[in-house]
Amino acid sequence: MRRTLSAVAAAAALAVTVLTGPPAHAADPRAVLATPGVAWILDPATGRTEVTVDSTVPASAQAVLRSAYAVRHDPGRLRILIAGGDGVYATGRCSLGANVHAGTTYYFVTSGHCTGTGTTFYADAAHRTVLGTRTGTSFPVNDYGIVRYTGTVAHPSAVDTYPGLLPIKGVALAYVGMTVCRSGVTTGVRCGIVTALNATVAYAEGVVTGLIRTNICAEPGDSGGPLYDPATGRILGVLSGGTGDCTTGGTTYYQPIGEILSAYGVTLP
């Protein structure tokens, strides 16, 4: 299901204006929310908007935000994590999210900022082993895409846990405090907890809504990799982006898997 910024803003009682640059002199805190480097959630328990800013948000914009919201600073720059789970390659490197199917036709899903970079995907950086062809992509607002397998590479319904494979048992819904892990080609498996739901993130490339937030680190190339429950083998989402790195720690955001499956009419395992 596609969401619009206006629908999300209405649900949060916010009137968000998407901006092309930092609104240094904006007086309305609601407009400043769409500044690149800002992420926010509406806490359902308190009804308050909680805001996170990265190191690129100007002090003037931060001051406007603090006049209306509780603001937390995350070091580094909020970014999509393409430098491009197992690695998948088009013009850059990303990570495969999950293998899915519609009947006997098989696909993999990953992040939309990854599928937007090319139409043919490969299993190697040299582009020798074809995986398949992009059949759908959505970014920004959403951050997901889908690739139909056309090559002969085996595609089990599993998460690469570096080493070994964890069979995927289905879909899980995230909740705050849930213990989760993610897998990606750059940094392997990292674990932590879900810290918020329905987060909105303003990347430099555009605003993405409805994301799961965790305290797990990630680095470029991990984008698109799965967020999963290590106890049950159920998938929660695919990595969109975040701040920090796996040396100092970070915050990461994920597109929920259920929305991706619904958008493309596919299932897993």
Summed up:
The protein has 269 residues and is mainly beta.
Fold topology:
Elements: H1 5-11, H2 29-32, E1 38-42, E2 49-53, H3 59-66, E3 70-73, E4 79-80, E5 87-89, E6 93-95, E7 98-102, E8 105-110, H4 112-115, E9 120-122, E10 130-138, E11 144-149, E12 158-160, E13 165-167, E14 170-171, E15 179-184, E16 188-203, E17 206-214, E18 226-229, E19 234-245, E20 249-256, H5 257-264
Parallel strand pairs: 2-3, 14-19
Antiparallel strand pairs: 1-2, 1-16, 4-19, 5-6, 7-8, 8-11, 9-10, 10-11, 12-13, 15-16, 15-18, 16-17, 17-20, 18-19, 19-20
Which short descriptors sum up this protein?
269 residues, mainly beta, Histidine-containing Protein, Chain: A, Thrombin, subunit H, five-stranded antiparallel beta sheet, 5 helices
Q: Work out the count of structural domains.
A: 2
Q: Specify the structural class.
A: mainly beta
At CATH level 2, the architecture of the largest domain is Beta Barrel
The helix fraction, in percent, is: 10-25%
Share of β-strand residues = 35-45%
| Shape call | globular
CATH class of the largest domain: Mainly Beta
Query: At the third CATH level, what is the topology name of the largest domain?
Result: Thrombin, subunit H
- Low-pLDDT runs: 1-26
Q: Output the CATH homologous superfamily of the largest domain.
A: Trypsin-like serine proteases
- The radius of gyration computed from the alpha-carbon positions, rounded to a whole number of angstroms, is 18 Å
